[in-house]
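note to self — DONT lose this again. spent like an hour looking for the file last time. sequence + predicted structure for the chain T wanted, 324 res
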Amino acid sequence: MSFIRAATLARSAAASTRLYSTEAATVKKSKLPIYLFGATLASAGAYQYFTYENKAEEVKPKKVLTSPLDPKDFIDLTLKKVEPYNHNTSKFVFDLGDGKASLLPIASCVLIKTDDFKDAKGKPMARPYTPISASDLEGELTFIIKKYETGNVSKYIHSLQPGDKLAIKGPMPKWPWKMNEFDEVGLIGGGTGIAPLYQVLQHALADQTNKTKFKLIFANVTEADILLREEFDTMKKKYPNTFDVVYVLDKPPANWNGPSGFVSADLIKRHIAPPSLGEKVKVFVCGPPPQVASLAGKKDGPRQGELNGVLKELGYTTDQIYKF
């Protein structure tokens, strides 16, 4: 509404009031100040309306990000900072640059290569790692990596200092996640095998269209070994209707209230949706090879391998299980 039109409406209102007034003709007190005040309010309202409309039209378009990663060739990324997490694990944050993001599909990983160590064929060692930073996070790529005394690649990464470079290739696609494909998703993780499961949860729970219910069983040796605990506890508070987590410890402290020991059939039956749900349930498993083998059978290299172990005994089928 324009200023002129607002003022005109105010004058019309004043004229109508005079036409239908029942006051005695002898009362001559002017109402002009009231009418002018009304016109001023109408004009101010019109100004605020157009100001709001203009601000709405000034919303900046979403920034277009690109990925520096290459699925065919290794590229060197510079280590930005190292954040110690516990006694043997740290977060390693790599610089992607302005306007850049990993844009990794969910779920996928990357290969990390080191020229300092060679495999049996004399080639540089390369190992798969899943970032914990969001796929669309601008400027950074973050990993949480445990140092294994028998793991040459992990030891090499832990020797890096800010400013050093690391060769990375990807993405290497894993499970092609689709929103709301399943009613229930169970996730069973152990140690640093939690990263792929965290990648799925971080992506799916943040999507406002999500209706899938997730239940995570996360097994570790000690309480200090629980990685990303703060993040999972935050997820549980933020998404109470679609996410829950159960921590399992092999060596619990005296005041531990959660389950202890290995991930058993009884524990899975209590917390993971049953196989009777058919195609509406999926169980993701990731952890140390012995744990994966006991729960779902050994992987055959990069292939899934035959389904065995506890999950098969409980009646789950090959189509219901995915081993990262």
